[in-house]
Amino acid sequence: MKRNPLGDSQLLVTPIGLGLAALGRPGYINLGHGEDLNFSYDVAAMELQAHSVLDAAWEAGVCYFDAARSYGNAERFLQSWLVKRAVPAQAVTLGSKWGYTYTADWQVKLPAGQKHEVKEHTLPVLQRQVGESRELLGSHLDLYQIHSATLESGVLTNQAVLGELARLRNAGLHIGFTVSGSQQAAIIRKALEIKFDGTFLFATVQATWNLLEQSAASALQEAHDAGLGVIVKEGLANGRLTARNDSTGFRTQMALLQARAKNLNTTVDGLALAAAVNQPFVDVVLSGAACTAHLNSNLKALDVAWDDSLAGMLAELAEPVERYWQIRSELEWN
Question: I need a surface site. Which of 33, 105, 232, 275 has the fewest CB within 10 A?
Answer without folding.
Answer: 105
